[in-house]
Amino acid sequence: MRRYFVTAILVGACSEPTSMQTARPRNSPVPAPSAPGLPQPGDARRAVLAVTDFRVCLARDARRISCWVSGEDPDRSSGNLVERNHALAADIAVLAGGKSHVCALDATGAVWCWGNNDHGQLGTGGKPHSDEPIRVGLPGPATDLTLGYETSCALVGGKPYCWGELEQGGAPQRTPHQVEIPRLASRLAITMNMLVAISDSAVHFYDTAFLTERAMVEKAEAPAPALGAVREVQLRALSGCALGVDGTVTCWNGMPPSDTSSRIRRPALAGRRVRQLATLQNGACALMVDDVLVCWGGVPGDLDEPHEGIREIPWEAPRVVPLDGEKITAIAATSYGLCAAVASGGVTCWGHDMVRGHAR
Fold this sequence. Notes:
The protein is mainly β and 360 residues long. The protein has one helix spanning 208-211; strands at residues 4-7, 22-23, 49-51, 55-59, 64-69, 82-87, 92-97, 101-106, 111-115, 130-135, 142-147, 151-156, 159-164, 173-178, 187-191, 194-199, 202-207, 221-222, 230-236, 239-244, 249-253, 264-265, 274-280, 283-288, 293-297, 319-320, 328-333, 337-342, 346-351.
């Protein structure tokens, strides 16, 4: 297994190097009281690491984000990693990554996006790619944020607002628009042609092909088996995992999942409590409350090379992934790559991702 390393700075542990230039985002928000329901520092929902195909972003402290951008990004001519630093005017609640863009939800409920904008995934209209966070125009404070391949969605007042390519191959929405669903939601997840919403701890699957046409909204909800009371869903293309309020994890192949035993699995996690989930195209990982990383399916052992097409998860038994004694603080994934932020001040990545070729 090959190992990759991107130098990062431990949250709050070191002073800022003089070689770094911290850029303040445009249109900084005026600080305001935290929006209700937002993850707070120390909350298990708070994601401090985001990974795309071309960049890794880490919240260095409450308001500062460091990103490492690969030269493989089509908007980059250099083959080297470029470090960029960003400062928000309010505490960071959530970081999320798509294919080639990143968004942050801050404690005021404001959403900021940067990266590629070829499908309108930054929510800034016809503006081009941006290296700096740009505030997304939403009708009110957001309480949740999720990114798909080239899509972004936020919850405002329990209602999803999305921008980018909501339907694969469809016309992009370059500014946020409300997506009609029949019930208010507390959490969201988005993947190719499927929006998943948690309402009253129950998971509902909506086909985005119908959500893009108001007259077809009543046909949007896809039948799916009950997954029990759920607090979080993580999606990756045609597979996903749900974290139950009781700490159990349920994973599936196919979207939406079917009731057949070949599609739904509940990995045995030896009684460990899950803090954070990350799904890949061919497997999943969970960071436990005791900072142990446990993976199942095809990760991370066969992540050294990319896979062609959609692969069935082999459903190998969950196993602990050693990381040279490092304490893991957060995890994030792309389709074929997994990254872990570690307490010593680094981000270690496996697989086919933006740090490929930058070996330690």
